[in-house]
Batch of 2 targets.
Target 1
Amino acid sequence: MLDIKIIRENPEILDAALIKRGAKAIAQELAAMDNSLRILQQKLQDLNTQRNEVARSIGQCKQHKTDDSEFLKQAAEIKVLIPALEEEIAKATLELQNILDNIPNIPAEEVPVGADEAGNHEVRRVGAIPKFDFQPKEHFDLGEAMGTMDFAAAANMSGARFVLLYKDLARMERALASFMLDMHTQEFGYTEVSPPLLVRDSAMYGVGQLPKFEEESFKVDDKFRLIPTAEVSLTNIVADKLLTEEELPLRFTAYTPCFRSEAGSAGRDTRGMIRQHQFSKVELVSIVRPQDSKQEHERMLSAAEEVLKRLELPYRVMLLCSGDMGFCSTKTYDLEVWLPGQDKYREISSCSNCGDFQSRRMKGRYKELATGRNIFLHTLNGSALAVGRTMVAILENYQNADGSISVPEALQPYMGGTAKIGVKK
């Protein structure tokens, strides 16, 4: 959620940001609504003051045994006016809040302008694209041929966009999660967390998933939703809290299942493990001071990149343009891994700096040492990495002519020393 002061004092900043994101400029409309609301609030304040004054006058009349009929008449009128005005204020507040809740974050100055992924900028490429002396296959063909990936049985029990993993691939999923968590906790200083998978709507609202993206999450009942990412649980650790400056930075990581309805992706990636309703992911979340968030963003990106480097998977770093960036983000890097079976790079991680956008919704702050002021925290999140997509990348980049898959050297200790899977016996 944006600071209302931007709309009051610098509406041109908001309109420029919305235009950069390809949205309609509405700052003047919001400013008018905000001004009308403030006028109503001032009227209510004046009425409350008047009510108190009338009450004092009635008391004085009773004390001195003088006529208080005029004051009683005024009190009766005020008694009717206040509830009506309160109702009008509540309606105007809700109307303004509903609009504010759906306004995206302001892009950072260095974010390129663009309408969609075609406007993203490539920052760098890392790793050599493998060359094969045979036609490389896609991951689902490889997995099904090994008998370790079953989409049909999963569809029979759950429908499309689910998979059953067996044997070596089930073990690889677990191994990848352990490998990533060990690296992030032992080398990058993240605290491992086992968070709730079910959260209230208020937690989803706090990270910007509601109300705008309501149909993209799975609602269990009137109380809970399944998390679409551990970002929801990890970021909400600081909801409604006032931290000390000495506690910062906070860095959390978690390995969890994630659940997404994929409502806006009908017809996309219908085969395979690229886009599923349930998938596993290792998430990174940082909570920092405003002056530290840019540097923390680069640090988080390097942690995600390190996973790909150690697995020796070729990838590229993309700076997302204004039209392709997430709702809460002020700046986002995507990591795209090379998939030989598709002959192109595909997203495997997004690392985003959300500034104080989420903390304003969550009311997460810290007390600044130098001034004693309460300052909104800056929040950052990143996949490091999506485990299923990392497995997809390993299958396709490490495939052999006989259909077997070599295991990346860095992962072998987590798989009991296994150097190759899918070997025909």
Target 2
Amino acid sequence: MSEARRVLDASALPTVVFGKRSLLWWGTLGFAVIEGFTLLLMVASYFYLRTNEFEWPPGRTPNPDLLIPTINTVLLLLVIVPMAGVKKAAERMDRRAVARGLMIATVMTIPVNVLRWYELLALNARWDAHAYASAAW
């Protein structure tokens, strides 16, 4: 004897949702939790390493240059503007405006990625120099 199978009719469900009902929202939340935990581990390792050294930063490491990281931060903050427009366009279901906003945001992040290399060089310590440099990288 076979049991009757239950069938769920999902045809009435919306094809696009925003906010907590969206799978992408939950994925982004999970990513933020993982990144936050990684940052917490890095801060903890920084303070742990600091207690094990007589001189901090070790080996007469010069202070990092702050100009390039500051420029990079400003550029990243400016990308919020087109992305806010993308959010509004997506809620209006305006596909062209979403594509345009994403293209603008992508072009705006190209200098960020280039400056990121120079930002790492501005740390004034190679990643393999010592534990402080490794944690900073």
